[in-house]
Amino acid sequence: MQRSPVVRARGITKSFGDVVALDGVDLDVASGQVHGLVGPNGAGKTTLLGLLLGLAVADGGSLEILGTPVGRALAVPDGVAGFVDGPGLYPSLTARQNLTALASLRGNADGGAVERALEQVGLTDVADDRIRGFSLGMRQRLGLAAALLTTPRLLVLDEPANGLDPAGKRHVHRVITELAANGTAVVLSSHRMDDLAALCSEVTVLATGRVVFSGPLSKLAAESGELDYRLLTSDPAAAHQVAEGVTGLGVLPGRDGPDADVLVVRGPVPALDELVVRLVGDGVAIRELAPVVTPLEAAFLALTGAGGGPGPTEGGTR
Ligand SMILES: Nc1ncnc2c1ncn2[C@@H]1O[C@H](COP(=O)(O)OP(=O)(O)O)[C@@H](O)[C@H]1O
Ligand SMILES: [Mg+2]
């Protein structure tokens, strides 16, 4: 597959008054690539995606999209589709009417395209419902369907995972994967690393307007140091004592509430192995031992300083 550059941004800066939203950002996206833009709230993701869509102009730096330099005008080359801050739709029209109106505005009278787009995002069953009553996830999917009407060469999606239920997520994943397989470059953002892990091969991590990491996901995962692990046993008090006796293992302060029985420990893998061996030797049963956050999430939190303690996790013995 040809991998021509679709986005080439160098040293992009953008401020709103005193707020520096983007501070020397570089971004490279090749055709057929699904590129994740990840960072905590306020990192500058929406601002950067807005520049790619021609909704705003950078203060400095250079931006090339599909080989064309983007100048001072609020315009980008044909072949760019997507939306930030939710798609612009007519609330009093149905999903099908919205797409049909968009298709005819673009001179695309092929009714089949509308039906295909509805099918692709899984909205066929609600195609004749007014979108006023649509959930955020359904609106996101309809916005994606609108983008599909144009066969984009660059698709830009801001936080597409927001509000999606598992079925919606599956549809969106499939659409994005198929587009990329056909050569579309996709740039999508999320404030959560785990949203992107399944979809993206490359990520750019932003923190307060600066790129703190750019490259393959595998490389990002390797950047995480020692992880915190949740440990649930048949005897939390005994486990605590054993853990404190293992060299190189830190025991983190316990938490109240439903997790009061969960011990959080941090250390290198050999120390964890030692802990498991000793617990079993002492007759303490291990019910769960799992990283509090995945290596990817850990690297993300470390890079962006968005820590503030472990977030909610789904545990499981791994
Ligand atoms: N139109 C605007 N006017 C003023 N400040 C803005 C505007 N858009 C974004 N900002 C500021 O720029 C920073 C980056 O915002 P944004 O790009 O929306 O971040 P993200 O999408 O990563 O949450 C934030 O501090 C935000 O408050
Ligand atoms: Mg945003």
UniProtKB/TrEMBL annotation:
UniProt cross-references to PROSITE patterns, sorted A to Z: ABC_TRANSPORTER_1 (PS00211), ABC_TRANSPORTER_2 (PS50893)
Taxonomic superkingdom: Bacteria
Transport found in the keyword field: yes
All copies of domain ABC transporter, residue ranges: 7-233
Record keywords, A-Z: ATP-binding, Nucleotide-binding, Transport
Family, per entry: Belongs to the ABC transporter superfamily.
TM regions (residue ranges): none
Protein name: ABC transporter
Entry GO MF terms: ATP binding; ATP hydrolysis activity
Species this chain originates from: Nonomuraea aridisoli
Pfam families: ABC_tran (PF00005)
